[in-house]
Amino acid sequence: MEIFDCVIVGAGPAGLNASLVLGRARRNVALIDNGTNRNRVTQLSHGFVTRDGIKPEEFKDIALEELKNYPSVQFFQETVTQIQKRSDQTLFQVRTQDEKLYIAEKIILAAGLTEVHPSVPDLKTFYGKSIFSCPYCDGWELRDQPLIVVAEQEKGVHHMAKLVYNWSRDLVVATNGNQISAHLKNELEYRNIVVVTEPIKKLHGEDGYLQAVEFASELKMKRIGGFIVPEFHRPNSFAEQLGCEFKEKGVMVMDGLGRTTQKNVYSAGEFSQVSPSALILAAADGSNAAFAVNADITNERF
Ligand SMILES: Cc1cc2nc3c(=O)[nH]c(=O)nc-3n(C[C@H](O)[C@H](O)[C@H](O)COP(=O)(O)OP(=O)(O)OC[C@H]3O[C@@H](n4cnc5c(N)ncnc54)[C@H](O)[C@@H]3O)c2cc1C
């Protein structure tokens, strides 16, 4: 059975860039991905120089095409279900949903994050088209428009409202049935931001493009887009199963070069740390982890 220098779980920008660097360093790589990247719902991605306004699927296609220049990198469309140390304790065994096995010396975990959204009916229809979670990614397109910020916790309300205010001052903040402190409410209202604490009953619009937001009392407000504050979770417990250590709030303990606290286990992109989230940061992180993998292999084998 082929022994890979490295199995990379996840072909988002982190895993793709890690593959590119390792391919160019002549390492055997299995890059495994199941197409569940959280940005797949969005129409266009912004803020990656030379790629501003690119479709997420086009970004991935270009990257996979470039990887074909490096035959030691193989791409597999599969779902990884388990990663464990083999009994010899030197190699890892990666199992997929189809019961395929990949054996590797090193692992890069680059499986991204999943999101839990505020419980607003039909939000999925609008998410990625006119409602987003990152103003740096999509604020420009919504500048100066009547917007809504949906955030259910005090901290999220404060953070997102303050940020989005930079792109539009025509703002409604909806807490979707949750209370916020009088202090925060006053702070927002002082800036003419309307605060609505009743639950959202319905989002009105066409083809994912928001036109109005209706609240439980049937109050209806014209809004053409907005931002939500999701909760973020790692999509699996591979890092825990492999014994990686965590700091508070689930942040992985890393050495700044993608090395986790477990020998031969590396991590890159949002999988290691929720924020800040951007394609270019994840790609850079993947590059960093690949340098660490290659440096370690070089030192071990020279
Ligand atoms: C709606 C939306 C819009 C966004 N817009 C922008 C933007 O305009 N600009 C920008 O810079 N950023 C944007 N982002 C953020 C950006 O998508 C992330 O920062 C970036 O994709 C993180 O890269 P990553 O490689 O860490 O993870 P991801 O891109 O999420 O990649 C992780 C990969 O791992 C794979 N995976 C997960 N589990 C498994 C498994 N068990 N087996 C196999 N494969 C697995 C997934 O299929 C996925 O492809 C947006 C995000 C969202 C949700």
UniProtKB/TrEMBL annotation:
It comes from the Bacteria. Residues 4-284 form the FAD/NAD(P)-binding domain. GO terms for molecular function: oxidoreductase activity. The keyword Signal does not apply. Keywords: Flavoprotein, Oxidoreductase. Pfam families: Pyr_redox_2. Its cofactor is FAD. Homodimer. This is FAD-dependent oxidoreductase. It comes from Shimazuella alba.
